[in-house]
Amino acid sequence: MKANPQRTAPPTPAASSPGLRILLVEDSRLHAELVEHVLRQGGVDFSIVRVENRERFQEQLAQAPPDLILSDYALPAFDGYEALAIARERAPDVPFIFVTGTMGEEVAIETLKSGATDYVLKTRLTRLVPAVRRALRESVERTERHRAEDRLRRSHEQLRALTGYLQYVREEERTRIAREVHDELGQALTGLKMDLAWLASRVPRNGRSLHQKIKAMSAHIDATIQTVRRIATELRPGILDDLGLVAAIEWQAHEFQTRTGLPCVVTSLVKDTIWDQDFTTVFFRIFQETLTNIMRHASAARVEVRLAEDGGRLVLTVHDDGRGITEDEIASTRSIGLIGMRERAALVGGEVSLAGQPGQGTTVTVRAPIPGPGQPGLAPPRTGLPHENPDHG
C-alpha cells in the first residue's frame, strides 16, 4: 500500500485498554482501523501501536516488546520480510502474523520457514481473530516449554555441580583416611614390632618356643604393615601426587598385570608433567574404573593403554581384546560405572566415548582440555587439606 503523501501517520496507541499489546506495521490508516475493528468484533482485548518505518519499529521493540506483531508485507520503504528478520533477532518469542493484501503461495511458505507464525489476507480478515488466538496459545505453550527446559537445564547444572562437589569431598576424604591409616596404624605397628625385638633380645637362648612365637608374631606384623600400606595406597596412591599421572597410570597398569596375569602395556607420548591435582585425579579414577570393568566383564587376554596430547587436549585410550561391549550396554542406565566415568570427565570439560566390536574388544577413550597454569580442573574450592603421600612415613 502507498502512504498518504499529505501527512505522516504517527503511532496511535489505544491506551484505554490494558490487554493484549499489539505492534502493527501498516502504512494505511484505513487498513489499520479495519484490523482494529475486526479484532474488537472478535472480542479481543488489546492496545495497539501502529508504525510504518524501520526506525519506529525498532524503537518500539526496544522500548517495550509487544505480545503480538501484525505486519503488512509490502510497504513503500520498509517491507514485512525485513520486519520479520528484525523481530526474530530482537523479540524471537513474540508471535508474528502477516496481514497483507496479496501474498503468493511460495512467498507465504518462505515467510513461515523464516519464522512467521501465520499469514492472513486482507480479503479474508475473518481468519484474523482465530489466527491471533492460535498464535497466542502457541506462544504460551512455547514459553512454558522454554521455562521447563530452562528449569531442567538449571537442575542438570546443579546436579552436575553437586556431583563435582561430592567427587571432590570423596577424594579429600580418601586422602585423609589414607594418611590416618598410614600414620596411626603404621606407627602403632612399627612400635609393636620394636617392642617384639626388645622382648626377643631378653628371652633366654634356650627358650626356643618363645623365639619361634616372637618370630611368627613379627612376620604377622610385617604382613599387616604391608596390608596397611596397600589399603592406604588404594585409597589415594601417593605416586599420583608425587610423580604425576603418567607414573601413576604405569604403576596401576603394573598392579593390574600382577593381580590378573593379563599383559597391560602402557605407551605414553606426553611429557612427565604434573598437572592440576583434580585433573589428574579424574583421569586416574577413570583409568581405574576401566581396568575394573575389563577384569570383571571383558574376558580379555591383553590390554593396551595410550596417553597422548592432541590439540591442547589430553587423550587416554584403553583397548582390550575381549568380547567387546554392546551398544545396549553402553546406553543402559544400569551401567553405573560408565555413567560415573562420563560424569567425572564432564567435571573437567571432558568426555568419555566407548566402542566395541564383537570378539574384537572394547576401546575406551577419554578426552579433556589440559588446564593451563593456575587453571583448576574442578570447580569446588580447595579446603587447605594437604594431600600427603600414604606410601611414605
What does this structure look like?
This protein has a five-stranded parallel β-sheet with strand order 2-1-3-4-5, sandwiched between helices. Helices cover 52% and strands 16% of the residues. It is an alpha/beta fold and 393 residues long. It has helices spanning 29-41, 54-63, 80-90, 105-113, 128-201, 208-235, 238-242, 245-260, 277-298, 327-331, 336-347; strands spanning 20-25, 46-51, 68-71, 96-100, 118-121, 264-268, 303-310, 313-320, 351-357, 361-369. It has eleven helices and ten strands. Among the domains are: 20-145, 3-Layer(aba) Sandwich (Rossmann fold), CATH 3.40.50.2300; 239-383, Histidine kinase-like ATPase, C-terminal domain (Heat Shock Protein 90). Helix 2 (54-63) runs parallel beside helix 3.
What are the SSEs and their pairings?
Layout (H helix, E strand, L loop, with lengths): L19 E6 L3 H13 L4 E6 L2 H10 L4 E4 L8 H11 L5 E5 L4 H9 L4 E4 L6 H74 L6 H28 L2 H5 L2 H16 L3 E5 L8 H22 L4 E8 L2 E8 L6 H5 L4 H12 L3 E7 L3 E9 L24
Parallel strand pairs: 1-2, 1-3, 3-4, 4-5, 6-7
Antiparallel strand pairs: 7-8, 8-10, 9-10
